[in-house]
Amino acid sequence: KIDPSEEMPADFTTSSPEDYTTRGPAYKVFAGTAVYTTTFEAPSPRAPDYYLDLGKVGDSARVTLNGKDLGTLWCAPFRVRTGDALKPGENHLSIEVTNIAQNRIADLDRRGVVWKIYKDINVVNIQKGTAGNYVKMDASTYPERPAGLLEAVKLVPLTVKRPG
Description:
mainly beta
């Protein structure tokens, strides 16, 4: 039990991707998964295939199109092929974005909350010039990281290159 006064961020609706840490204190220190959903019409005429370009993501994204899991993206470029999951007409896209715990850990250390309690070893930093090179970890100075879908998602047609 870390702090009973902490609150989970409230659900919200947005018309465009954004760094959700800017929405207030509970969002700024949230570590977890945010779910983005939208419905869109497939382009007509169709290309042979498409990919979804998520742009910048903080930090990983699991992409589902019309109930089909397209994969989890954990590094740039955050792109995934749609394949047969993209259908004519209306399509339902869900992107689960999970951020790393850096903002949460930094907040806990800034507030002096004891969270680094392990039975076998504790959390340490390695620092040259200290006895054994280990020093107590202090995340209070960690910079804030943006989180969520940070740019507009694009559906990009793939074309087949013909030889010659």
